[in-house]
């Protein structure tokens, strides 16, 4: 592909450079080599981009360079994502049902669905068109998977869970394990049967090593377009809205509700039955113990509105000093008290 | 099953309603439909229960309703758990040894033990009666599993670990990986061989994605009846008592000891060699760095007794204000000092 | 093996005891039985060691005992590690390629490489000499594994990742899943293709349930000799130096850099693009939000230099008292103000 063709494919304007130059690859600023393209997110990075051997740089529209050809675009990061897709073709998809795969009875396999080596598909499961079940994954009895979804190796989909279309589940994740709910029965803890399920809507992407428990009754729900990072724990009866972003090692206790478009940074925790409003955000390691209104950003443990928490953190740094100050003030007060002959504790 | 039969099975008193009415199912208050039963934990929820289309409500004995038939019982949550078990029969258990399962030499399979597709059972392993090894699980060489235990898909039981009866291990969990212990050998880190094992006593239930390391020597022990949630990390030589409850993403460093009946909320951490006393509790995200006496509840990082930590958290919220107050006091002291003609720093 | 032979094998001096006595085993102080050897890390533990039924104790050179024979050595913990290796032989390694293993096309198997039951090795993968792929593990297309590496059950190595020699990956870990990077495309979140890889250098050891994402472009790198504990999350483009120690449940956001010899205690988090200097250390649960210079130890959230954080934690415990003190000072100031006839707020 030539630089000119790439510009056209991206809808970008080529500023400078030879449109017929061949594009040999694509890489970030730190790895880019000769003949490859890279990108700069904003004008501040342009210098760094110019110092690389890149053939050309995807750059925002307010950039101009006398050194490097620019692929000028409104959203360089989006253009870079498109360029990665164009220039680095994905490997060939799985094809067909591997002879070692174990397929149960009454399984519906959509057109072009593929099942890899040693994968197991339980009785009555329904796989949509072009679904890919990678080697060593298991689809439980009666589970449903929509068109074009990809289930990576070592994923466990328990019985009866329902995944929409274009869902991706990365290796080792578990969907539909029993929720963690017990009731005391004399001295013993009796497990509350979790007879509900998990519903994962279209275009959800789930990282590696994630665990999503089934509901007691009803369903644990991950809303359309939501993205979940690695090692996240989603307890029973959680309802996550649409287009949320949940970073790594975050944990949700039972019956949490997230509105649409919520963004939680890594290692966040949300206490049971808490509601996080639409568009709310949490900084890394936030411990959300109470409801968060729409659009509010929180931080800290317990989580507080961002500005408040930052003031607290700043004050914390001064806390030892504050104690020293206080002792000095006490001494000055004592001196004043002595001076007027009074005597106070 | 009729409402009357259900009342009898639960040992509950039916207050109102037609004992011959057919029970069509069971669900929580948010999902319950016509003909189904639901439950209210306490009197405050009765109104909400009455507003549902439920056929009848399991309710505590101090409740009375003119709108809904009640299944009156001392412990509604326990009765709900029993009713779930009665009304929603579990799917059929695994049967037999799947032809694709790989069974080693000298394996003892108890009566009715079942091994699923592509599961692997190592040489010399001993499986009790009615043990279920789900598809794609692996039981290491010489591992022992007591009667009626259930090993879900993708579980790894390393060589020689010992599980009691009625143990459940959910998908993707790992029991018996080498502990994380190293010693410096010049510039390198040399792994200390972990030649101990893991002992999981009867009726322990382990969630999905849990990792339990084997002991250096001796055993890492999970005591009878203890329940462990998803993505919990249990390091080498940890000894967890009986009937403990450990919520999701909690981590135990090496050689931690927990007494019986300890309850740890989610994302708790316990430092190495710490002892947590019998019946102690920790709130979510507690960082337990020192021994906790029996029966004490802690919170915070580092964990402190609950009341103390709550006072600190309340004071924290006032900390920026405290600094402002202090500056005002300093100004007033300075004014007093000026007034008496003295001069102080 | 006799006590004398063991002393010689360890390079230790046998002080007291019968060199021809047979060593029956080895165990920690809490489990050691008659005829076995144990070890005491330092002189303070000698009494405890003397009270055990041990045949002899590995002990530091400054120890002397009239009760127990000592294997006197400069580094007892290192000698104990060696003794464990000598006295408790590891089980037999995997042998050959199991008939149920699925081996792709153009796979290179080094001399003595073994592949277990139901393991899957993708097309074009290259396995070095004596590599062990345990049952139910998967090696993706074109992945490379150096000599003597061990891949435990249920590990997923995605396409094209590269592991060095003598690497160990414990059960259920995932290497090479797509990084968690998205860009907004109108209302949707578009995944940024992660076309990079993961490079794991020689002698790295990775615990169970770890997830390591591949880079956007270039590689996520784990440096030679680094040890990673269970349930750690390593995001895309992270570069971890050599001989680092990363304890359980730690999480790295994207593009973090760690120098050589960094030690992170459990449940630490490192924010994206942060650099942690060579030899730096973090206490448990640290939240590293800014660059850490070489050799500095940090603690807390946000992480601060250790001494500073400890002073803050101490002051925190006094915070409620500080507020009470402040109210008392305010009262004394008010009294002084009244005394001089002034009137102040």
Break the fold down into its secondary structure elements and pairings.
Three copies of one chain form a homotrimer.
Chain A: H1 3-10, E1 13-15, E2 25-26, E3 36-39, H2 46-50, E4 56-60, E5 70-73, H3 76-87, E6 102-103, E7 108-109, E8 114-115, E9 120-121, E10 126-127, E11 132-133, E12 138-139, E13 144-145, E14 150-151, E15 156-157, E16 162-163, E17 168-169, E18 174-177, E19 182-185, E20 188-191, E21 197-200, E22 205-206, E23 211-213, E24 219-222, E25 227-228, E26 233-234, E27 239-240, E28 245-246, E29 251-252, E30 257-258, E31 263-264, E32 269-270, E33 275-276, E34 281-282, E35 287-288, E36 297-299, E37 304-305, H4 306-317, H5 319-339
